[in-house]
Structure formats: structure tokens, C-alpha cells
Amino acid sequence: MGGRNSKSKGDVLPNSLPQNWPNPSEEDIKECPTRNIIVNGPQGYLFASNFIRTSKYTAWNFLPKFLAQSFHPRKKMANVYFFLISCMQMIPLITNTYGIPTVLMPLSFVIFVDAIFAALEDLARHKADDLANASKALIHDDAKGSFEETTWSNVKVGSFIKVLNRDVIPADVIILAVKEKTAIAEGRAYVETKSLDGETNLKMRRALKNTLNEIKVDSDVKKIGHGEIVMEHPNKLIDRFKGTFEITGGEKEVVDPTNVLLRGCTLRNVDWAICLVVNTGLDTKIMMSNTESPVKTSSLELRINVEIKRVDFYLMTVCLFGAVGNFVWKNQEMLDAWYLKWSTTDADETASLHETDFKDYNATGDFLLSAIVQFFYYFLLMANFVPVSLYVSMSTVKYFQATFIENDVNIYHEETNTPTKVRTMALNEELGQISHVFSDKTGTLTCNIMDFRKCTVNGRSYGKGITEIGKAAYNLQGDTIPEDILAGEAMSREHAEMHKQPHVNFYDQSIRFDLVGANGDEQAQALEDFFTVLALCHSVIPEHDEETKEVHLSASSPDDEALVCGAKFFGFEFMDRKQGIATLRLSNGELRSYQILEMIEFNSTRKRMSVVVKVDDRLELFSKGADTVMIPRLSEKINQEKLLDDTCKHMTAYAKEGLRTLMICKRTLDPAWWEEWHEKFHTASVDLKEIEKRLNGEPNDIDLLAEDLETDFRLLGASAIEDKLQEGVPECIADLANAGIKIWVLTGDKVETAINIAVACRLLHPEEYMEQVVIAGGGDTNTKKKLVEKLIDSIRQFEEDVKQAGSADLVKPRALIIDGPSLIVAMQPEVQPYLLRFTQCCKAVVGCRVSPDQKRQMVHMVKEKVLGVKTLAIGDGANDVAMIQAAHVGIGISGQEGMQAVNASDYAIAQFRFLRRLLLLHGRWNYRRMSKLVCYVFYKNIVMAITQFWYAFQTGFSGQKFYFEGGIQLFNIAYTCFPIMLLGVFDQDVEEKMLLKYPQLYNNGIRDAFFNSKVFFHWILAGTIESLVISIFPLYALQQTGEPNDRQDFLPSLWHYGATSFTLVVIVTNVKLLLNQYTFPWFCTLCWILSVGSWFASAYGMTNVLQIDFDGYKVYEDLMRNHSYWLCLLVVTVLLAMRDFFY
């Protein structure tokens, strides 16, 4: 919907978007920098309709549009090829079908099947569109002064709409006013964004301050007056919105994401919200986010394209040989044949058009031109070298393979009612060839369900017991776990059962005593400050259930929820946050209020969160964050060296147990300094230019002022949260490693945490079994030179070990552990080759403190620069999307972090352990099945086509066809089509339990063992040799026969030879398939019998009953009464089946 933002002409409104939208240039943006919407007045621009159509086709354009796509020369080359063949069949000079385009019949069948799939897929889109467009909405009627019911399709930009509680938002809107469930109006609304990003937690939104108190009832909408909204152009960034709202005579107000409700989200916890529509239809963020993932093609399909070129070369060679043979034969034999009349006037009236034309050429002696024509005649004769049914067979088989994957109960997660979802069935066979798995940690290997486990406050550690990852760390070092630690773990579990508190698994009685002063007032005050920070420094929203009166915490981060629950466990319960006042309930029942003055939220760049509160006339800054960003911000005015040293030691110990740690700090602010800073911060936070800089990751005043605030901290301590491993992760990783798959774990955790989790996952092993090369922090990795030296030394040592051992399999395996800062250096062009080379020596790689873009870079490096690899990336969060899309196969885990990863993936699963069955079972089966299907489809077509070439040796290379045309066209769609598709869906060369018991069997896929040039060549060679036997044997077998019972002077004609050869083609190719099949369900056997039987039935019907093929009239009636015919079928079939039977 591109267009220029120019002045309107006549009654036509200009488009609201820049020229060349959606890809405008900088000049286009300068010409039309903003989107302007009139409030309570006629719009000056044309905006998108809210009528949605995501379907590709309509009833009127389906046929032309589908046909255009079906014959696209780049996407559907096979269809174009056969269409050209059908056109060539109508050229009198080279036709061998009497000018009838017989290839159109199988081609039409293939396109018809594709059309059915396309129509069914698009029909689902039509139904979804109709449902959305017909949904009900309340739009303000100016004349009536009330909101009237209409449909979503009638919602327009500039309209006032009313959204009721639990209604879905019909468009992107700005909140003007809300009817809250509390007496005091704060303008707070809550929204559930599950349909947008998959997150189930509620998010708080606010009405505009200028309109919050103006609208109490429907008719108050008129009181707003005229105004204008100036905003950014539509985009797909769901967490970004930049604009201003100004009413005539009023103050301009900045509109940010907290004032906006997006289409598809659900309004919660308010009676109603009155909103102004700013984006509709295709301009809404949810529609703009529906961009397709990168188109991925399986390695097998890419290999097919290579092999097709070789088959084409084979075809050209055969055609050229036939043409040259015909030219030579005519020169040597034909001119001396006295019985041939060379005058065209004496030509036999019954001669075919093809023969007559050749006499014309021969009469003039133009043998060269005759050979050229003969080349194209052979080209038509051999056109079935390229199988017309290949792609439709592959698509059909992949559809059913995907259905079986999605309905596999063993990869269905009952707790969350989540089945495995196939989003890109074109990659089914790619699952059987994965060589590298790149995995996120949190939410992928772990549950992403956090429990408050331990903490250190004022230099003293609290919390007993040990995690499973901690136990693995002891095993790594070969140490025995002390009895007191095991006893503490048992007590911790028992205590957790007795005092059940969600997201808390803590046992240490000493902290209870210290809270009441048993260890001195200083420690008690430090604990109180520590838990107060946990209870206040967060974005958790309490959701009150009116029926049960229970309060549920809705958190955007599982860490926040665990910390708030931990604070509650120790007597600091977060109750609510209203009108800027946060309320805590202490263990003695006292309610304590804190005025929230400012909140600076966490993001992946800042790695910290801060909140400024006022209590008892004191201004306090509470902060929590990663140790790497908090330690440099500690105050140097007070002596905290010992406290910091003790805290760091405790955090290291926690990290070794796989616990997630955050430093907790506070700062007391000077009121005068605060007022000055807050004024600057408010000015910067509403400055659209500064907001734009911040959104683009550029230096800006907002972040600079936050840096000024977040300094001179006093260290309180650190929290430690446990994120348990998912069920079955260690076993899954062990089996994948045994299958020959290299596994890379990429996480943002500290080195110690990442290592110990990798040990618990059985990715890393003790030093005596695996040599670990750690490149993380320190001076030796800060320069390129030293990093390169370390990598070269590691490579040289590995190569020397291999040389001494004689094989890489006999050498102690290597593992690389590298952190984000080191990776920045290692990914530079001068260093990357050494990094890549060493990683190929490693069984496992662990990346720590890595960013989302570094994950993508590592996947891209291996994918593009290591020959023959197949990469798989798996993750569950938005920060994994780039990695998932960069890999050959992307797997999304539907978990706690929304649906971004799932929406960007090729396959979606609920648990990491399902990857084992998906790859080792479905992946291997499907890879082998598709390999057999492709090889067989080419093989059977070679057998059918080349038999006619061998027969040319008997006919002076004239290219005489000796097959029935009906049989040729039905060969791919009736006689040989269905058995191979059933093999592609059901065949199992190794049964399920054996594949899972012996994961080494998967290695066949990594080595391309089932489909490569050698395997493909063997099938083509077998087809060529078998076609020679099928072509030659009937010539001699039938000549040795006697006369049929009811005929005299019977001599087999070329049509008898052809019918016998074609029968052998059908039987031999089907028997070949039978001998390459391992499982025989009754329906596969029935299909095989019907396929072979259909040839006998149709051949008899075409030549006797229907008399369609006049060349073969009564041929099958003759053959079926001839004993030598049946003997020939038996002998040739047994002869050609022997190799496959014994080998």
C-alpha cells in the first residue's frame, strides 16, 4: 500500500505513508516524517482499512494466480519443463504422439493435487479472516453520543472505541480513560499479550493524563475537543511507540508504549477502556509482525537439484547419441536400401508424419538437419528422465510425515497440553542429518521456573543443601559430597514440603534468628534492607481474583517472581502498587507504605533494575543487577572491600551449584540533588529524539542520567535462584553426543554457572575424561595475539595427540569454554579461522555471557564455513530468535518466555528431551525414507525411458516408440506412484526401540550415507542395466514361441515387444521397491498389488475394451494367452531381483 504523502486532488485523500512504503528511502522519510491523526475531526489522509485479508487467493483470482505460481521458472522449474515438453509434442516435425500433448495429463494431475493443498490451506486463512472481521466492536456514534455495536472491519483510524473487560482489542489504540475497580481513578489498565508474544503475565498500561479525568460516561467523549496525534509510522516493534497527543488549548503529552493497547491483546482487570484508534488493519503491529521466517530448503532437496543437472546431462548424451547414430546409419545403410523410395510423392500414405518429413530431408541429402530434428525427437521420447511426480510425491509424503510427528504421544507434553508442532515440513528429512546442535540454557535446558534457594547478606551466607548441579560439580572434581551438605539438602526439602511457598526452596533457621537481632542489630538491619529491596525493586503486578479473593503475582520475569516470593517467605510481602504507593505487609501484620518516585527497568544492555522510593522523609535508591555491572558502581567512600570479597566468594560458590545470582544494593539520596536530577531525567524521558536514540541503541541522555543515579551504592548482599534442569535433559544430551552430534550451549550465565550446568547435563566430563580449554576473562585473552597463540597451542596439542593415538576417536575429547568478551575478539576476521578450527576438534562448546547476536554469529560461522555440516538451533525466548532463524533447522520451545521463539521456528516442542526422539527416530526415519523415494523415483523413470533407447539399436536409431502412450502417461501417477509414497510414510528399517537404544545409528545421516552422489549413481546405473535386460530379453523370448491357440501364422510385432517390456518395467520396478522395503503393513501390500494389477487391467482395457490405443489393438489379448510371455515375465523379474534379494 505504498504511496506519496502529497496533497489531495479533488475528493481523493493522499496516503498517510511515505513514498515507496514499506521500504522508504531517507528522503522519503524526510518528506513524510510522521503520521498525523486528527482527534474529533475529519482525517486529512487515507489510512489502511481494518478489514483483514491474510489469504492468498480469492474465488476470482485463484486460477490465474495459482497457475502463475505453478509455472514460475525459478520455483517450479519441473512444471515449466513438462509444459515445454507438451508444447513440443504438438510440433509436427518432432512429435511422437500424433501432435497430441499427452504429457499434459500427468502434469495436470500434479498441478491439480498442488491446487487442492493450496486451496485447503487458503481456506483456513479465509475462515480465520472472516472470524476476525466479523468480531464485535463498540464505536462511538457522534450523533447519538453513545457507543454502538459494529464489526471490527468498520473500525477506522481516529475512531473512539470502547473495550470491555476481557474483550480483545480490534486495532492499535491509545487509552484515553478507564473504569477501574478501585474507588480512586489512577488510569491503570492491564493487558494480556499472549496472542502477541505468548506471555501469560499481565502488563500494566496507563490512560493519558490529559484525558484520564475528562471521560466518566460515554457522552463525555465529546468533551475532549479537537486535537492531533503526531506519531511514528507503523512498525512491527511491539515494545516501541513514539508519539505526542495534543488537544487545542491543552498541554502536549508524550505517548509511549505504556499508553497503547495493541490489536489482538486482551483487556483485563477494568470494567472498560475508552480508546482512540491509531493503527488499523495491515498497519497494526501484530499484522506487521507476521513476516515469514527465512525460506529454508533441506540439504537433500539442494542435492536433488545437483543430481537433476547430471540426469539432464545423461538425457542430453542419450539424445545426442541417438541423433548421431541415426545420422551415421542413414549415411551407411539407408541410401543403399533399394526397397526405400526416396520420392516424397511415392511415400506410403500410411507413413507417419514423422517418417514423411524425414524422407523430405533425405531426398535433399540434408542429413545434418535431419540429425538435429532427430535429437529433439529423442528428447521427447526420453522426456520422462525427469520424473513429473517427484515433487508432488515429496510434498504428499512430507505432509503425512508431519502429521505423524504432530500426533506422536511420546513428544506430547501432557502437563501443558502441548503437542509437537511442525511449522516447516520441508525440513522433515533434515532432522535426520544434524551434525551440530546450538542450545540456549535458560528455559531450554532448564525449566525457567525459579526458586529462591540461597542468599548472602552483609557477608554472611544463608541457605543449606545442594542442587543437582552442585552434586555434578563434586563429581566433576572427583570429590565426595560432605555429609552435612547432604543432610542440609534433606532438611531443605523437608522444610519446603512443610512450609509450602511458591518459588521458594529454602532452609536455614539461622536467618530467622538473625532477622530478630540474634546476631546483632547491624545484621538484622542489613537483612531488613535486603528483603525490602527484593519486595520493592521489581515490575510484578498483583492480580486480585474477585471470586476466590486470592492474589496472583503476574511477572514479566520468572526471576522477579521468585525474589518477591522469597521476600514474602521472610516476612516482607508485597501487597499492591497503587497511585505510586507500594504497600508491604510485614510478618507482624504491619502495613508499610513506600512512595515510588521513579523506576528504571531492566534490559539486556543495562543488566540491572532500580527504583527510587520515599519512606519516612528519606529518599532511597534500591537496585539489583549482575555483578559485572554492580561492582563498578559500588561506593568508594565507605570501606566495603571485605564485604565485597565475602559476597563474591559466596556468589562463586552459588554459581558452582548452577544458581543464578544478582547483587543487591542501595543508596540514600540527597533531596536537593534528587530534585535537580529528576527534572533533567523527566525532560529527557519525554524528548522524542532521546527516546529514538535509546530505542536505536545510541548514546542518549536517558541512559546517561541513569548512570549518574546508579552509583555510590552500598552493597547489601546477593540472591541465589535455582532454575532446575528439565526432566530427561542429561540423558538426551548424552544420546545426542553418542549419535555423533556436536553440542554447543550458549548462555548469558557466568562461567562457573555455565560449566557446572554443562556437567550436570553430561555435556562436560571430569578432567580425566575430557580436556577443558577455558578462554574467559583475564589478560591472556584481551589481545588478538595471545588469543590466537592459545588457540594454536590447543590445536597443535590435539593434532599431536591424534598422531600418537592413530585416531581422533582414541584421543581424550576436548571441550571449549569461552565467554562473551573473549568471543568478541575471537570472531574478528583475523582470529575466527583459528577459533573455527579448534571448535571442530571439540566434542562440546560452552559459550558464557554471550549476547543474542553472538549466538547468531556462532551459528552462522559454523553453517557457512564448515563443509557439510547441518546445524540446529534450539531456544525458548526472544533472544534466541536470531539464532533459530540462522540455523538450518530452528526449534522453538514453548515455555515461560512467550512464543517468539516458537513463531520463528521450523518445529516447536515443549521439552528439550523431545529433541532426542525428534532427531534419532523421526529424523532418521524420514531422511532414509526421502532418500529412498528420490532415488527410486529417478530409477523407475530411467528404467522406463532407457528401454526405448536400447530398442533404437533394432530400428536404425529411428527413435521408434514401442510403448503405448496411455501407459507412459499413467506410469508415474498410477502404476508406481502410491507404493513409494507409502514407503516414504511408513517404512522402518530399524525399529523404534533399537534406534533409541543405539543412537550411533543416527550417524548415517550425518555422513549422508543414504543419499549422496555415489548412492544416486548406483540407482541410475542399476536402472540403466535393468532397462537393457528388459528391452533385449523379450525380443528373443517372444521370437522363440509358437502360435497362439486361436491364431495361425502369428509373429510378434513391435507392439508385442513393447507391451512385454512395459509390463516388465512395471513389475520389476515395483519388485525393486518391495525388496528395499522393511515393513509391510497390510495396506502397503494391498497398494502394491493394486498398482501392478492396475497396469494389467488398464492395458487390456485400453487395447481391447475401450480401444483407446489403436497401435496396440488386441495386443494384450494375444499376449495373455501366450505362455512364453508369462515365462518371460517370471525369468526376467527373478533375474533382476536377485541382486537386491541377496544384497
How much is the radius of gyration in Å? 38 Å
The total domain count is: 6
Beta fraction: 15-25%
Overall residue-averaged pLDDT value: 83
According to CATH, the fold-level topology of the largest domain is: Calcium-transporting ATPase, cytoplasmic domain N
Helix content: 40-55%
Annotated CATH architecture of the largest domain: 3-Layer(aba) Sandwich
Any low-confidence stretches, pLDDT <50, length ≥5? Answer: 1-11, 342-365, 1043-1049
* Termini gap: 62 Å
General form: globular
Query: Counting H and I runs of at least 4 residues, what is the number of helices?
Result: 39
Structural class: alpha+beta
CATH level-4 homologous superfamily of the largest domain: Calcium-transporting ATPase, cytoplasmic domain N
Largest beta-sheet characterization: 9 strands, mixed
Widest sheet, order of strands: 14-33-32-31-15-27-30-29-28
Tell me the name of the CATH class of the largest domain.
Answer: Alpha Beta
The count of strands amounts to 33
Structure write-up:
This protein is α+β, with helices and mostly antiparallel strands and 1143 residues long. The protein has 6 domains: 1-28, no CATH class; 34-49 and 155-288, Calcium-transporting ATPase, cytoplasmic transduction domain A (Distorted Sandwich); 319-381, no CATH class; 390-399 and 944-989 and 1023-1142, no CATH class; 410-445 and 725-916, HAD superfamily/HAD-like (Rossmann fold, 3-Layer(aba) Sandwich); 446-721, 3-Layer(aba) Sandwich (Calcium-transporting ATPase, cytoplasmic domain N). 45% of the residues lie in helices and 17% in strands. It has 39 helices and 33 strands. The strands form 6 sheets. The chain has a 9-stranded mixed sheet with strand order 14-33-32-31-15-27-30-29-28, with helices on both faces. Strands 17-16-26-25-24-23-22-21-20 form a 9-stranded antiparallel sheet, sandwiched between helices. Strands 3-2-4-13-5-11 form a 6-stranded antiparallel sheet. Helix 30 runs parallel beside helix 35 and helix 35 runs antiparallel to helix 39. The longest helix has 38 residues, at 914-951. GO terms for molecular function: ATP binding; ATP hydrolysis activity; ATPase-coupled intramembrane lipid transporter activity; magnesium ion binding. Residues 902-1143 form the P-type ATPase C-terminal domain.
